[in-house]
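Q: Start with the shorter request: fold the first protein.
A: Done. Sequence, then structure:
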Amino acid sequence: MVKPPSKEPTIALINIVFLMLIFFMIAGTLALPLDGDVELIEAEDIIGREPPDAMVIHADGVLRLRGEIVANAADYLATLSVAERAIVRIVPDRKLPARSLVSIANELRTAGAGRVMVVSERALP
C-alpha cells in the first residue's frame, strides 16, 4: 500500500505572515516620504548656542541676555513683550546649583512669567 504524500501547511503559513503584515501596518505609524526635491541640512558643523530670547545663567549665578549682564529676573522680563512672557526660556550652566536654578525660576514666576522653560542639551544615544 502506497501512502499518499502529506500536504504542506503552506496556506496556514501564508495566512500567519499576512496577518502579521496587517498587524504591523496598523500598529506602526507610516510617514509620508519627503519630496524628492528636498535636501536636508547637515548638522556636523553647527555650533550649539542658546535661543536669542533666552537668559543664560552661569555657574556663579551671573545672568546674561544676548551677552550682556542682567541684574535680576525682573530686569530680564522687562525686555520681553507681554506675549513673550507667556513662555520664558532660561539656559543654566551645568554646574549651577539646583537651589539657585529653582530660586531664579521662582523669581521669574513672581515677576510675571507664565511658564519657565529650562533649555538643556539633548543626550545622544
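Q: Next, the second protein, separately.
A: Sequence, then structure:
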Amino acid sequence: MLNAIKDRVHERPSEVGETPATAAGGLTRAGFLRLLGTGLFAGGAGLSATGLFAQTSSDTAPVTDIDKVYDAWQDRFNAGDLDGLIALYAEDVTYINPDGAEWIGKAATKADYAELLALKPRIEIGDRIHVVHQDIGLSTNHWTLELTDPEGKVQTLTGGGIEVLRDFGDAGWQFIIDDASRSAS
C-alpha cells in the first residue's frame, strides 16, 4: 500500500513541491494531505469527518511579544490545539498552504489545519527572524515536520515560511499573511 501511496503523491510533482528528498521516496505534507482529502488514508487511519474537527482548545491567550509567537504557534500545533492555533490569526488572514493554495479568513485556514492536525504531527520551528516596523512584523523560519503514515512509518518533511504579523494591541500579534509554501533562504 505504501508504494501505491508514494506513486500517487508523485503523480503531480510540480504541485507538491518535489525536492530531491521527496523524489527519493519521501511523502510531502501536501501530498499526505491530498491523499487524506481523497479518503485514501481515512480508512486506514480510522479517521472520520467528525474526528477531523474534534480538536480542543487549551490556550488562546494573546501573544504580546513577537519573539514568543512561534513558540506559542509550535506549542499549540504540537498539542493539536486547533482553536488555540487559529487564535493567532487575524480574521481576514491570507494563508497560503504548502501546496500553494491561497485561503482567505480564519474559517478557511482552520479547515486546512484541521486535516493536518488530525494526523497528530510534530513540528520544530527554527531559524526564526523578525523584522518589525511599528505594528507590522515580517518573520521567516525553517521547520521540520514529522508525520506518521498509516503503516506506522515516520515521514520527515522540511520547509519554511514567510509571515507578516500585526500587533493588535490587547489582542496581541496575529498573522495577517502566512505563506507556508516557500522558505526565505
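Q: Describe the second briefly.
A: The domain at 2-179 is CATH 3.10.450.50 (Nuclear Transport Factor 2; Chain: A,). The beta strands are 89-96, 102-104, 122-133, 136-148, 154-167, 173-179.
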